[in-house]
């Protein structure tokens, strides 16, 4: 009987859902491993993947009841150490991506794949941030080329690593551009990079995430307050607005279609905000389509105003000079790169942030809370349309 229970436990493990095996009357305090105890899991949704197995739970229960005394004698407590998680962070060569890569790698519990377009810049950034060498790998990814995205996925798979968390973080912001520029595939650059590149990446890597046996696997797409017109920042013109998406349907190529999603004239600041709406809609559409079956947590976040990052590199010098003190002393919305990195790392790994379909924000006391998205950024019909048009544009449909 003991053997049969042990083999049941092992078969649960093979299903990839269980990290702990042991006697049935084990104390919760006894189960801590690498700082994550079963009691922690029980407090959070971590209990879900551990206790919810894909094999017949009824059969296990009846065996457990019938064989409890024998198990106590024969089966020693086997604690399986939680392996190091593997997280891919796009755009980890600066700003939020770099800070979160450091926060995660510094814990020693994560190996960070820094998915970056400039290998040398990323290597220098990792070194100067002091990220432990053994906890990161840089892999080339240029989100403005669909070929590069596919190549990255191939390279990642060849590395033999499991994928436990994907963070879609990279972005470009071109507020002063007078004319649109385009990706290798002919899409307007902001939406092409921030949304379509990430859309293809996350759709392809979803298969890898599904196969992960990590207790909490997650797909995170960084959003922004600026795409949410229900906030003060989101009402600063030009406001995000996807309209009827005629530009997106036309391929955003500026030739036989507008480079803007709504079909209007090019506006770099609006294109960025529109791309962020697409990011937040995509996260929710992933949640609706896949959360229940895969138990993957899909989440987005607004990390706060990190006014010092490279995101503002294309802005006029006066803006770059005044924006950080303005955010620090006037709006008081300023967040340091280090603090923002901790926030994103929280969404990656905190056992209490496993709820799916959520857009996280932080209050004045730096505590996370589920924020409300604007009407457009939570529009179910628009999310479905963005998904369907995007999969055609990136060659998935
Ligand atoms: N800063 C803020 O206040 C703020 C607020 C809300 C949300 N966010 C969001 O936070 C995220 C990170 O922004 P950030 O402020 O940290 O800006 P950042 O310092 O400029 O970082 C952006 C990253 O994206 C990378 N990137 C740009 N184009 C790429 C491409 N084609 N392929 C691969 N990587 C590419 C950049 O690489 P290079 O280093 O090679 O340029 C860089 O690593 C973005 O999603 C942004 O929307 C920022």
Order of helices and strands: HEHHHEEHEHEHEHEHHEHHEEH
Broad shape: globular
What are the distinct ligands in this entry? NADP nicotinamide-adenine-dinucleotide phosphate
What name is given to the CATH topology of the largest domain? Answer: Rossmann fold
Largest sheet: 8 strands, mixed
Task: Tell me roughly what share of residues is in helical segments.
Answer: 40-55%
- Overall residue-averaged pLDDT value: 84
Number of helices: 13
Poorly predicted runs:
1-72
What is the class of the largest domain in the CATH system? Answer: Alpha Beta
**Strand content bin:** 5-15%
Total number of distinct structural domains: 2
Features of the shown structure:
2 domains, eight-stranded mixed beta sheet, Rossmann fold, binds NADP nicotinamide-adenine-dinucleotide phosphate, 11% strand
Walk me through the structure.
Helix content is 44%, strand content 11%. Mean pLDDT is 84; it is low at 1-72. It folds into 2 domains: 2-79, no CATH class; 85-393, NAD(P)-binding Rossmann-like Domain (Rossmann fold, 3-Layer(aba) Sandwich). The protein has helices at residues 2-14, 38-43, 47-51, 57-74, 95-106, 119-129, 146-159, 189-211, 246-250, 268-294, 317-331, 337-349, 380-393; strands spanning 20-21, 78-79, 85-90, 110-116, 136-140, 165-168, 218-222, 297-301, 358-362, 368-370. The protein is α/β, with parallel strands linked by helices and 397 residues long. α7 (146-159) packs parallel to α8 and α8 packs parallel to α10 (268-294). The protein has 13 helices and 10 strands. The protein has an 8-stranded mixed beta sheet, with helices on both faces. A two-stranded antiparallel sheet has the order 1-2. Bound molecules: NADP nicotinamide-adenine-dinucleotide phosphate (NAP).
């Amino acid at each position: 009987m003991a053997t049969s229970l042990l083999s049941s436990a092992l078969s649960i493990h093979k299903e990839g859902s269980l990290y702990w095996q042991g006697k049935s009357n084990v104390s919760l305090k006894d189960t801590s491993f690498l700082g994550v105890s079963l009691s922690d899991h029980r407090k959070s949704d971590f209990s879900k993947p551990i206790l919810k197995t894909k094999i017949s739970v009824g059969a296990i229960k009846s065996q457990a009841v019938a064989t409890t005394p024998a198990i106590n004698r024969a089966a020693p407590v086997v604690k399986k150490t939680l392996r190091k998680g593997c997280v891919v962070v796009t755009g980890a060569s600066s700003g939020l991506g770099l800070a979160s890569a450091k926060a995660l790698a510094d814990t020693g519990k994560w190996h960070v794949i820094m998915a970056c377009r400039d290998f040398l810049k990323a290597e220098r950034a990792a070194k100067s941030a002091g990220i432990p060498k053994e906890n990161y790998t840089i892999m080339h990814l240029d989100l403005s080329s669909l070929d590069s995205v596919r190549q990255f996925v191939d390279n990642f798979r060849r590395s033999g690593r499991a994928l436990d968390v994907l963070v879609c973080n990279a972005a470009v912001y071109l507020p002063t551009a007078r004319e649109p520029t385009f990706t290798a595939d002919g899409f307007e650059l902001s939406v092409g990079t921030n949304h379509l590149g990430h859309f293809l990446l996350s759709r392809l890597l979803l298969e890898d995430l599904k196969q992960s046996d990590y207790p909490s696997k997650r797909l995170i797409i960084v959003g922004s307050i600026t795409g949410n017109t229900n906030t003060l920042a989101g009402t600063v013109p030009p406001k995000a607005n996807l309209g009827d998406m005629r530009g997106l349907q036309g391929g955003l190529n500026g030739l036989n279609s507008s480079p803007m999603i709504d079909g209007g004239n090019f506006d770099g600041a609006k294109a960025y905000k529109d791309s962020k709406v697409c990011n937040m809609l995509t996260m929710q559409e992933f949640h609706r389509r896949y959360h229940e079956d895969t138990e993957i947590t899909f989440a987005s976040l607004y990390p706060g105003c990190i006014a010092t990052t490279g995101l503002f590199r294309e802005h006029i010098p006066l803006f770059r000079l005044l924006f950080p003190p303005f955010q620090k002393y006037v709006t008081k919305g300023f967040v340091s790169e280090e603090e923002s990195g901790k926030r994103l790392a929280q969404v990656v790994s905190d056992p209490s942030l496993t709820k799916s379909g959520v857009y996280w924000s932080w209050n004045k006391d730096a505590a996370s809370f589920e924020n409300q998205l604007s009407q457009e950024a939570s529009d179910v019909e628009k999310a479905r349309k963005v998904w369907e048009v995007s999969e055609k544009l990136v060659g998935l449909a």
